[in-house]
Amino acid sequence: GSIGRQSLDIISRMPIRVAALTAGQSVELMAQQCRQFRPELAVMATQEAAEALCKEISDLDIRISWGEEGLIEAATMESAKCVITAVVGMLGLKPTLAAIRAGKRIGLANKETLVCAGELVMEEAEKHGVEIVPVDSEHSAIFQCLMGVKEKSEVHRLILTCSGGPFFGMTREQLHHVTKSDALKHPNWKMGAKITIDCATLMNKGLEVIEAMR
Fold first, then answer.
1. pLDDT confidence of 88, banded at 50, 70, 90?
2. Please, are residues 56 and 27 in contact by the beta-carbon 8 Å criterion?
3. Taking the model in full, what pTM does it have?
4. What separation, in Å, do the N-terminal and C-terminal C-alpha atoms of the chain show?
5. What is the 3-state secondary structure (H, E, C) of the chain?
6. Cα–Cα distance, 142 to 41 (Å, whole number)
């Protein structure tokens, strides 16, 4: 995903070692990244993808795993100090909790983890003395702004902005006639159908408010 690629772009410019890489089905890209960053572990979403990756990088000394079990293994590796959680949906919850319990610093770009289990996740983070840092979009921007404030009392309110979806600027009357296909035509981003609809209806912004609250 974009967060993972951006993370690797930053890592490539700094003296940081990659302990593990995880991906969905992009075998070719994962193979390229494995050759560049030489992680100890590479994890794919499915067994089929893992087997295909195994063939692509058979000459490298990299352990290959797949599925949720593989994600949890990657999130709890002894050699890793920080875990970037950027998988989509509730799939990120168990690996994130496992990483917290293993004492890892969390770079969070998976809102569902906090939307569906924010109280549990933050309790575990406090219990284990783990810092959770938002690394995606509005939440990262707010976090960086707050880091520049001497006293939190200086902040009166936080505003979560919208990206200007397909219905930006329309009147209530015009909105009465929009269709699902209209909602799926986001002018700025290419995302999955659910997230695109959630953006058009502002449901996604509601989820981000919950995330920010946690």
1. confident
2. yes
3. 0.87
4. 24
5. CHHHHHHHHHHCCCCCCCCEEECCCCHHHHHHHHHHHCCCEEEECCHHHHHHHHHHCCCCCCEEEEHHHHHHHHHCCCCCCEEEECCCHHHHHHHHHHHHHCCCEEEECCHHHHHHHHHHHHHHHHHCCCCEEECCHHHHHHHHHHHCCCCHHHCCCCCCCCCCCCCCCCCHHHHCCCCHHHHCCCCCCCCCHHHHHHHHHCHHHHHHHHHHHC
6. 33
